[in-house]
Amino acid sequence: MSALEPDSLYTLAPDRPETAGQVLVEMLDGFIDAGNARRLAREQLLAAGDAVQVVTFDADLLHDYRARRPPMLFVQDHWESYEAPTIGIVQLRDAAGAPYLLLHGSEPDVMWDRFATAVVQIVQELGVRLSVGTNAIPMGVPHTRPVGVTAHSARPEMVADYQPWVGTVQVPGSAAHLIEHRLALAGYDSMGFAVHVPHYLAQAAFPPAAETLLTVVSRATGLSLPIGPLPDAAREAQEAIAGLVAQSEELVELVRTLETQYDAVVAARTEAQSGGLAGEQMPTADELGAELERYLAEQARRRDDPH
User: Fold this and answer.
1) Does some domain include residue 29?
2) Average pLDDT value for residue range 267-286
3) Which domain holds residue 115?
4) According to the 3-state scheme, what is the secondary structure of 32-94?
5) Which pLDDT belongs to residue 237?
6) From residue 15, how far is each of 11, 19, 55, 95 by CA, in Å?
7) Is the confidence at residue 287, as pLDDT, over 90?
8) Tell me, what CATH number does 184's domain have?
9) 63-77, pLDDT tens digit by residue?
């Protein structure tokens, strides 16, 4: 088997459980994760029950070690441990005991085409009925309003309950988005959700977005994904944010301005949905693209200078 073939990138567990008709939820690390929403949601899912390994990818072929150096622990006079990058699919169970699949680990740095093709092959071999991607993006929205969601799918009827927030926009690609695109081209049902995180909180943990992410995925798939302590964490976060904002008149004014803009957008979307023509107040594609670029630049700076 050649290393150039997509099926050489992964190994199916010989004693894997039955997976036909199950949902695959994607929560890879490495791309935009404003407010750490996807990480918080993923940690909640993995903590809720025992994971059964179904697929293991060869991370050694897919990871760029000099771009993202794995952590090693040094103790006094020796190397104690090494956290190797991993990519895989595990089977978990929701709050009602229904099984589903979770793709998690480090987003591949290389061979995206082969990786996406490999996932399409896995979806076919495992009999996956629906694949759902997850994301969290920084937006010019206030923390005092409900967390917004952008839903996407090649089949409009799958996201008919969600109004678009933008029209056409070019943004940096990701392996997960390529997977969704390739699955759709291959005729498999796929969709994705991106929760909106206030841009001024993008670098901090924002549990309300993680709770919303699990809620919308549950609604779309029929699963009862466990949200655990996320509601309590969300309330505590909102209280802490409110306290910090109150200490700065500049932040108070920023939030007020965002609230006014948000309320105007919601009113415009409501009018547009009822047949009006007031959709022009939605965030522009350029504004969204610029916000994503700023966030990625900040993430890169943090990686280069951890102090």
Assistant:
1) yes
2) 57
3) 6-229+283-304
4) CEHHHHHHHHHHHHHHCCCCEEEEEECHHHHCCCCCCCCCEEEECCEEEEECCCCEEEEEEEC
5) 96
6) 12, 12, 11, 24
7) no
8) 3.40.50.10900
9) 999 999 999 999 999
